[in-house]
What we know:
Four copies of one chain form a homotetramer.
Chain A (H helix, E strand, L loop, with lengths): L3 E6 L3 H12 L4 E7 L3 H11 L3 E3 L2 H6 L5 E4 L6 H10 L3 E5 L6 H12 L6 E4 L6 H11 L6 E11 L3 H11 L2 H17 L3 E9 L14 E8 L4 E10 L4 E8 L3 E4 L8 E5 L2 E4 L5 H4 L1 H17 L7 H20 L2 E3 L1
Parallel strand pairs in A: 1-2, 1-4, 2-3, 4-5, 5-6, 7-10
Antiparallel strand pairs in A: 7-11, 8-9, 8-15, 9-10, 11-12, 13-14
Helix pairs in contact in A: 1-10, 4-5, 5-11, 8-11
Amino acid sequence: MNKVRIGSVGLGRLGLRHAENIASRMQNAELAALCDVDKSKLEETADRLEVRRRFTSFEELIACKDIDAVVLVSPSALHTKQIAAALAAGKHVFSEKPLGVTVEECRQAEKAVEAHPDLVFMLGFMRRFDESYQYAHDKVAAGEIGRPVLFRSYSQDPEKFIQGAIAFAPHSGGQFLDMAVHDIDLARWFTGSEPETVYAIGGCYAHPEFAQYQDGDNVSCLMKFKNDCMVFLFAGRTAPHGYNVETEIIGAKGILRIASVPQKNLVEVLDEHGVRKECSENFLERFDTAYVNEVQEFVNCITTGRKPAVTVYDGKRVSEIAYVCKSAFEQGVLLKF
Amino acid sequence: MNKVRIGSVGLGRLGLRHAENIASRMQNAELAALCDVDKSKLEETADRLEVRRRFTSFEELIACKDIDAVVLVSPSALHTKQIAAALAAGKHVFSEKPLGVTVEECRQAEKAVEAHPDLVFMLGFMRRFDESYQYAHDKVAAGEIGRPVLFRSYSQDPEKFIQGAIAFAPHSGGQFLDMAVHDIDLARWFTGSEPETVYAIGGCYAHPEFAQYQDGDNVSCLMKFKNDCMVFLFAGRTAPHGYNVETEIIGAKGILRIASVPQKNLVEVLDEHGVRKECSENFLERFDTAYVNEVQEFVNCITTGRKPAVTVYDGKRVSEIAYVCKSAFEQGVLLKF
Amino acid sequence: MNKVRIGSVGLGRLGLRHAENIASRMQNAELAALCDVDKSKLEETADRLEVRRRFTSFEELIACKDIDAVVLVSPSALHTKQIAAALAAGKHVFSEKPLGVTVEECRQAEKAVEAHPDLVFMLGFMRRFDESYQYAHDKVAAGEIGRPVLFRSYSQDPEKFIQGAIAFAPHSGGQFLDMAVHDIDLARWFTGSEPETVYAIGGCYAHPEFAQYQDGDNVSCLMKFKNDCMVFLFAGRTAPHGYNVETEIIGAKGILRIASVPQKNLVEVLDEHGVRKECSENFLERFDTAYVNEVQEFVNCITTGRKPAVTVYDGKRVSEIAYVCKSAFEQGVLLKF
Amino acid sequence: MNKVRIGSVGLGRLGLRHAENIASRMQNAELAALCDVDKSKLEETADRLEVRRRFTSFEELIACKDIDAVVLVSPSALHTKQIAAALAAGKHVFSEKPLGVTVEECRQAEKAVEAHPDLVFMLGFMRRFDESYQYAHDKVAAGEIGRPVLFRSYSQDPEKFIQGAIAFAPHSGGQFLDMAVHDIDLARWFTGSEPETVYAIGGCYAHPEFAQYQDGDNVSCLMKFKNDCMVFLFAGRTAPHGYNVETEIIGAKGILRIASVPQKNLVEVLDEHGVRKECSENFLERFDTAYVNEVQEFVNCITTGRKPAVTVYDGKRVSEIAYVCKSAFEQGVLLKF
Lengths: 337, 337, 337, 337
């Protein structure tokens, strides 16, 4: 079997991680090309990872015949255009979330994907590839906790990264689009259902800078899903203890909690602060393996002719839902889907 | 200092516990009389607890000169009438929750209490007297976690008591009045604020019997408080693991979780099920000490001339809020306070 | 039933606590007299607890006809003499540990107790009356974990009380006698067996002051019991996190751990130190209820004519064992019992 | 940089895992050859992992010019001979533990390694490459917990694999050699010291089959190290809850616990058994990443010319210590080193 030759696009923090993962932690794949507008970062990374093909132009990358697939970790605003162009060039496409920055863009991406049924498209909802989330999902799917009653999910970024969050605020789309999309995806994945209503609140509790973008530093919403499951989501940027992504699924017969302590590892410290576990610092630490697993799944789909379980429709649907949550939050009203 | 002579009214499960506590676990108090309509239970209990004065009539109890105070653990529908009568008879009054079964009743109770400023009236929101809740409240009050961002509180009864819950359903008033009142009280106590809006959902996920009373077996609500604190409450009757009362207060600078594992004690079991903690079975087990503490505080207020921190106004306000939650749930709408 | 009239002897920290407990947290008992050589402390405490009979002389106390029982919390060196005298005066006796400061003293106490089979004698091994230890013991006794394989028990005092420990070092008898006696008692209680061999080590890891008394600031021993159960005990005075008393019983079919986190209460703090539980500060906090329960059991034995499960023989045997551990430690050898 | 071409020897359970890891989870390495006496297993595995060079003869493998290094996961009795032969053939050598089955063998291996200072030799003490153990070791090395007081380490295999353990008993060398070697290595690594005395006990608590080999199903030992650190090790084959490897290091200023709950992942289950974490099933699950890391470190040493921190001396020394523990256990005496 020939290795899937991947061109990785974008060398920001996550892009760099994906490139490194493809270079050394993947089966049946090779990092065949790198693409970034920053030429010096491109050269430095390509040298380090021993990648020969280097592009500052995305168009030239996808024109390259020695590339089978692209992994898009470019700025969100470029996603849909690049997805369409790469597919048109006959490349399989893995795109980091979000699918697009507007629902209209997502619909265009959906059309582009549908127009190329022979190519693999996958969206990077990495939490689905975390072993704890997968383990919990298997149990739910096997009926071990019975009918879903309440789905609760938190996405909290550490306060210590708040300056970066403030700087990114004009482009983030707000917390529902930037952070809660992962929780929305999980809610749909775990419940197998879709939202019917949403009420969303929140505000700027520590950092008034977000208010000018109609955003808060902490927000939440309560949704009723079509199967009657209650869904409570919370997204915050001021977590004191670290990067906290936790989920609880209360079923009629059992309850599962995933990462209710975002422990860094298996070490427990007993000192003057009590008995404590230190926490994950950021998404790269917490979802280290999940980021490998998701791209590996993309590769496996290509090599085996399967289609990924995370579809372009999921990406579009999650964006639609996040926009309704955002509207409910901005208007302070109850909205129906 | 003379002991406060208490007449305890009602010998149901909690009433019996209060009577036993007053008889043997209280300072500066004595169980001077017992009152219950069930004469055989009354005699049996009074014999066991060595109480001489025994009444099947509440009116006769409060006419008794050798009683300083009454503890009401009678059926909810009798509370307001008994409160008014006891106060009129010059007795200090401790009443179990709820204050009354309608808001109108609560207002009458409020008037009765206001008409007797010389007497102590206290309502039984026992969670405020649990050492863990008190410890957390002290930290919040001291500013240790900063401004409150999200207050989340669960009240879950074990599935194994579901038959009792179904039998009581016609009289419970629904989960917001029956269970969530404690969480509403905590939310007001911890945030020092009042609700502004509420959206409530839920349903019958396992036991359709509750639907005929416009109730669910699991319900939740999201409230925005006047200080912008987000408040998420969940009440359920199908907890698989035990009696689960847990609360989380996310502040801008720190987070507290109270009883996120409703552990029965400090024993950890390692067996074929993994590493586990067994859970509290019911409210009497979980709040054993809190039930003592609250009546002790009532007694201390009488002996020292203080007024309790839990007022009749708290009782009325919590009922008002619970009724609005109930309406929001029944109508499926967003309501403002 | 008449209340058991108790004279409490010794008003140090634990003595004061016992006196307060008897005064207000006990059924069928009353604090009838107090005895301490420090007259001002005696008067102050007796005033506060409303105790009329006050003695600076132990002999006068036991001569008092209105006392049924004594609770001895006097200096260890006085225990055996006071036990014998009180029994001779016809009083029931509860004595705090240790039974005596030498094995010979313990044997004399044993004889005194045997000479008064009509009187109740009980020794204060309070851990047996802690609800978590009782819960675990019930499981072990019921065979739930199978045959005991390894019994591990820690007694750690917080570093922050080290100055007190150093000051008390000349009189403590060393850690095996001062601290590990509780663990030795638990080992015998849980395994139902007796030690056969012991190897003990340790030293002064932070505080060389203990060396002059042939003691260490941290010590441990490994014992083989007659039923082949392995017993590992650790006693330390430098715990950074609080007062840590934990026990693990590994059985052939299951494992129990008691208080592996010496959590102060059910509050979990999430802050810059991670996710943490604050710890108990001292024995009075950790064993608050156990101290009530043990004296209540003493009272119940008196009122019902039962004999306590903790006997004078247990006290003597534990002292004998602790002395052998101490010898093994001091000589650096393996000893047989 | 050319990839290190590795020949992997032995395709038992762990051998297979190493082969798979080298094939797909390693940087700068390739699985260049496989060797096993079972030809059908060899062919099947080599086909699956796409390895062209296949050997049923170890001698032929090391004669192959296209191999830079060997990874030995062969039967323990072959280790020292194969180490010497591979080194003599100019190959770098990674050997799984134990170094040899007798101390004499270990010494021969040591000589062979010393005779080839230009080649990399590394022993597979994988726990040192587990991220939690590394994290803890960094803290200890940085002085965060102060002087080591007590080192406690458990190695427990699940009861459910007992039949395999019984079958392997004639060849295992007993629990000190088979299991406790890892804990001995950790004790030396964490304390930076060597044992001075040891007392060891244990027995057959559930499975008398081990007695005929002078082994037990559960054993323990207490050692005094030269730096006065107390070291308590426990090894058992009857763990009810899973594969339990846990370590505690009590320092004079802080305490660390590694994997005190051998949790499978971050999922917590709340059901009729309480609140629980499911446990790792075996060493391959618990140390999955560590097995990758250790071989990666071997490869990195080869490519960078470094020498591994785990040396042949460590392997010899650990074997010497384990043999003394075994003797102490068999004779029931205290031994000095």
